[in-house]
Amino acid sequence: MLVYALKRLLHVIPVAIGVSIVCFMLIHIAPGDPLAAILPTDASLELQAQMRSFYGLDQPLPLQYALWAWHALRGDLGTSIATGRPVLAEILSASVNSIILAVAATLIGFTFGSILGFIAGVFRGGWIDRIASGLAMLGVSVPHYWLGMVLVIAFSVSLGWLPSMGGGPGGSDGRSFSWDYIQYLILPAVTMSVIPMGIIARTIRSLVADILSQDFVQALAAKGLMTKHVMRHVIRNAAPTAISVMGLQLGYLLGGSILIETVFSWPGTGSLLNGAIFTRDLPILQGTILVLAMFFVFVNLVVDVLQSAIDPRIQRS
Amino acid sequence: MAAITADIVPAPIAVPRSPGFWSGVLHRLCRDPVALAALAVLIVIVAIAILAPYIAPYDPTKGSVIRRLKPIGTEGYFLGTDELGRDMLSRLIYGARLSLIMGVVPVPIAFVIGSIIGIVAGYAGGLTNTLIMRTVDVFYAFPSVLLAVALSGALGSGLTNALVSLTVVFIPQIARVAESVTTQIRSLDYVDAARASGAPAFTIIRVHVLGNVLGPIFVFATSLISVSMILASGLSFLGLGVRPPDAEWGLMLNTLRTAIYNNPAVAALPGVMIFVTSICFNLFSDGLRQAMDVKS
Question: A277 — contact with chain B (CB < 8 Å)?
Answer without folding.
Answer: yes
